[in-house]
């Protein structure tokens, strides 16, 4: 059953990844993600359905437009493949669970926000703000666990953690505005919901991992002379990677640390 679910998740991830390519390109430009249909940016010819099969079409076309032979960025199939792998990994982590939709949504949003922040140094409200009610509803479904034992204490913990992480980021923004973007502040509450649903250890480890990973990356850039001490770097990707660490390794890391004490 789990193996079949992994396959289904991988296929679903390919389809979602194809849509995320549209989101990543259009949302920062305030364009509709529904209309017009996708077209080649070089010649403007609409993409045929047979040329819009995730990963496969790019390989068959050898990374070029069928009509004008313009190169198609390898990022498109990479986004599709990455989303597919993430969806499958979520199944491997959670198994058959009502929590799957919530964490699939987190995986999809993370891919989109990661790339947008890298591209334009912005975390669009159009993605972040709707994620609050969507994440809450999906986590509520996971807590209700139809057909099994419910655990609404996890949902309460998620809300408390979301508020706590949001307040923490607001304080950082007030204390040092240049070091924390407003988009990062808005995103923090969403990520806090997910971390809190898993547990307080995930919250602590996930929040700390974001600053640790971002700090190591920043120092590395300075050492390699790719950036200066006053350079501004997107922090959203590190928040998202920190959440991944907190969700997967939070309880284990917290247990290890407590053991040292």
From TrEMBL:
The compartments listed are: Cell membrane
Topology class, membrane: Multi-pass membrane protein
GO biological process terms held by the UniProt record: methylation
Single GO MF annotation: methyltransferase activity
Note one Pfam family from the annotation.
A24_N_bact
Give every Prepilin peptidase A24 N-terminal domain span.
11-91
The catalytic activity of this protein is classed by the Enzyme Commission as 2.1.1.-, 3.4.23.43
What's the main place this protein lives? membrane
Q: What residue intervals traverse the membrane?
A: 6-25, 85-116, 122-142, 154-176, 196-223, 235-258
The residue ranges of the Prepilin type IV endopeptidase peptidase domain are 105-219
The organism's place on the tree of life at top rank: Bacteria
Keyword annotations: Cell membrane, Hydrolase, Membrane, Methyltransferase, Transferase, Transmembrane, Transmembrane helix
Which family is this protein grouped under? Answer: Belongs to the peptidase A24 family.
Report what the protein is called.
Leader peptidase (Prepilin peptidase)/N-methyltransferase
What species is given as this protein's source? Cellulomonas iranensis
Lineage of origin: Bacteria, Bacillati, Actinomycetota, Actinomycetes, Micrococcales
């Amino acid at each position: 059953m789990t193996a079949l679910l992994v396959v289904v998740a991988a296929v679903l991830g390919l389809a979602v990844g194809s849509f995320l390519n549209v989101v990543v390109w259009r949302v920062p430009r305030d364009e509709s993600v529904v209309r017009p249909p996708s077209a080649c940016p070089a010649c403007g010819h609409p993409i045929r359905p047979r040329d819009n099969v995730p990963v496969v079409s790019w390989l068959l076309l050898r990374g070029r437009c069928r009509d004008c032979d313009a190169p198609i960025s390898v990022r498109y199939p990479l986004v599709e493949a990455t989303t597919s792998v993430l969806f499958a990994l979520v199944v491997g982590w959670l198994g058959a669970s009502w929590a799957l939709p919530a964490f699939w949504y987190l995986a999809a949003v993370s891919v989109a926000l990661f790339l947008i922040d890298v591209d334009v140094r912005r975390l669009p409200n159009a993605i972040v703000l709707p994620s609050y009610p969507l994440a809450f509803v999906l986590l509520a479904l996971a807590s209700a666990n139809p057909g099994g034992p419910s655990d609404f204490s996890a949902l309460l913990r998620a809300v408390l953690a979301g508020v706590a992480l949001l307040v923490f980021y607001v304080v950082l923004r007030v204390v040092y505005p240049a070091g924390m973007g407003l988009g990062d502040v808005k995103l923090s509450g969403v990520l806090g919901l997910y971390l809190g649903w898993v547990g307080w250890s995930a919250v602590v480890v996930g929040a700390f991992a974001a600053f640790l990973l971002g700090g190591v990356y920043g120092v590395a850039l300075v050492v390699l002379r790719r950036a200066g001490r006053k350079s501004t770097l997107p922090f959203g990707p590190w928040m998202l990677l920190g959440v991944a660490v907190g969700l997967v390794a939070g309880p284990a890391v917290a247990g290890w640390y407590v053991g040292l004490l």
